[in-house]
Each structure stands twice: as C-alpha cells, then as structure tokens.
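User: Okay, second chain of the day. Same drill as before: sequence in, structure tokens out.
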Amino acid sequence: MPEPGLYHLLFISAALFFIGMFGFFTRRNLVTMLMSIELILNSVNINFIAFNKYLWPNKMDGLFFVIFVIAIAAAEAAVAIAIIINLYRSHGSIDVEKAEELKY
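Assistant: Same drill. Structure tokens below.
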C-alpha cells in the first residue's frame, strides 16, 4: 500500500477541521461541542505530524508539539466535563440555550 503524501494528509486534516467547526457552530449540546473541539485539535495534530515528516524529517519538533497539544486537550476535556456536570446539576440540562444566565 503506498504511503500517503503531504496533500493527502492536509486534505484529511482540513476535512476534520471543517467537520469540527460545523459541529461546534451547529450543535447546542455541550458534549457534542466538546467533541467538535477535540476534532479540531486532532486536525492540528495531523498538520504537525505531516509537516514534521515531510519538511523536517530528521527533527522531532512536530512530535513534541503533538504531545503538548494532547496534554492540553486532556486538561481542557477534564475541566469542560466538570463544568458540564455542574451545569447539569444546577439546570437539569446541558443545552447551551438554557445556560444563558451564566453569561454575566
């Protein structure tokens, strides 16, 4: 099986990014919005790996950035899930439209 080229990886990354953006802007459920953010972060990781492999194959900079982004995403997911649980306990729903009073 042939190895995917840079354009193939960039196409997959762009597709993941736009699916994540579409999901973030069209969904009103906080869990699906969180999953959309994770898709966006994974598309960034694919970009880091692709550019690291094809532009600087002997360096490990892209891999270090990916590990850093994964760590940040894990912390972000933990905080977001804690906020979602508290929102569900106080409002009985995780719908974004019902959380209007949290703005101010």
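The chain has a mean pLDDT of 85.

User: Thanks, on to the next one.
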